[in-house]
Design goal:
four-stranded antiparallel beta sheet; 185 residues; LAFE_0F05776g1_1; Lsm12-like; 3 helices; alpha+beta; LSM12_ABD; SH3 type barrels; RNA-processing_Lsm12
Length: 185
């Protein structure tokens, strides 16, 4: 039996895929070239159209859940695209690039995992922490050299005892945490 696919357009269906995920919508199109079914997913008023494209070979079951559409084909009103603010996209892209650059600055290059953990612990408490080669610099006052233990902490200026004490406490806490995790505690 031959079936004209124009006759199924517009039917409200429930599609279950091979992973048992259920999607409901109206059949919007069928593409025989790549064997896909496009559903216009049911939406709330004043929201943009949502389409789901499903590969026919991934469909486990298809159930018609609504009445037969009034016309033989789906009403073909052109779908108007939602306007896109180029300025907003450019600003968002600029923000993401800046964020990626900032994220890159907090990842040490060629450092041990312990060094990165010490850095991360310091950075959470004191955001003015940065990498200088393989050394960690905190508040431009304290430097921690590999292997990033308390004995490797030194002030960059002789009179910065307050920040030195704080950094020593944070580094000591980071090492205690690492040791307890290694012991399974």
């Amino acid at each position: 039996m031959s079936l004209n696919l124009e006759q199924v357009l517009g039917f409200k269906v429930r599609v279950t895929n091979i992973l048992d995920v259920v999607t409901q919508g109206r059949i919007y199109s069928y593409n025989s070239t790549n064997n896909t079914l496009t559903l216009l997913v049911l939406k709330k008023p004043q929201q943009p159209h949502v389409f789901k494209i499903i590969k026919i070979t991934f469909i486990k079951s298809l159930e018609v859940i609504g009445d037969k559409p009034l016309s033989s084909g789906m009403k073909r009103d052109p779908i108007k695209p939602v306007s896109v603010s180029i300025k907003r996209v450019e600003n968002l892209l600029r923000e993401k690039i800046l964020q990626a650059r900032e994220d890159d600055l907090i990842i040490g290059k060629g450092v041990t995992s312990e060094g990165q953990l010490v850095f991360n612990t310091l950075y959470k408490t004191v955001p003015e922490t940065k990498w200088s080669g393989k050394s960690i610099v905190v508040l431009d006052e304290v430097e921690i050299n590999p292997p990033y233990m308390i004995k490797n902490i030194k002030p960059l200026n002789a009179q910065d005892a307050k920040s030195l004490d704080l950094v020593q406490k944070i580094v000591g806490g980071a090492w205690k945490k690492m040791e307890s995790e290694r012991k399974g505690g």
